[in-house]
């Protein structure tokens, strides 16, 4: 599944290769109600063609009109939409929110095209990047990103943007908890993949918008199913599925790995993974077991909520003791 950011960057690259100037817009921050999250992208070329989204349409229309009038000639600018404080954006958002947008004016040259190719590779899952843009000159640098945290960070005249593949939620096996995790994950914008080889378990199961693969999750993982923006969760209580998924997941760059079970069950699993699987202490430390935040969850939906909350906590770079 090609998510929108990848489509935007790929199109921007094609426009640049054809000799067209491109304005690349990134949502930096939102206040109040806003339809698009920080890090969302929009690209516009000098012919007025565009792809991507910053809002429900009103911001896009305003921006396209201003580009057509020759505004935003500078290498980089920050525009604030929604509260009337920026002379270049007098519109009010119907939802009552406010958003700040980084606007980069990109010439059709080799440096820009090389930069866009790097972003394209990151969005395809080849690596995770930290993109740094300096104001007001617009210098751009790329660094390997080995941490989790907000997609957008600002420090003085420096903006840092995390660039990676679409956030993926890999469900190792089907269960009632996995069903709710799939639904919650889809609502939160994850690319959700369920691996379940047991045909009888999937009988009558309906999950719209979820990719269902009838294979062992461990096989999917071995064949490249995980990247650094993947959360792997095993929720079946079946060691043949859960344990094998954990054995393979810890050998990937997945940012979250968790398996369901009580304290006693989790301790027995750790002993099996260490004794039979040969996992090191460092590999074992990557597995969240028992999985999820301690919310006192009892029902499948409550357990799924605790799991997704813990994944979001880690994705946003928040320590458990900071909650």
TrEMBL record:
* Name of the protein in question: XdhC family protein
Q: Which Gene3D superfamilies match?
A: NAD(P)-binding Rossmann-like Domain (3.40.50.720)
Q: Where does the source fall among the domains of life?
A: Bacteria
XdhC- CoxI domain location is 17-67
InterPro entries per record = MoCofactor_Util/Proc (IPR052698), XdhC_CoxI (IPR003777), XdhC_Rossmann_dom (IPR027051)
Source organism per UniProt: Pseudomonas promysalinigenes
Q: Which residues form a coiled coil?
A: none
Q: Pinpoint the XdhC Rossmann domain residues.
A: 169-311
One short Pfam name that applies is XdhC_C
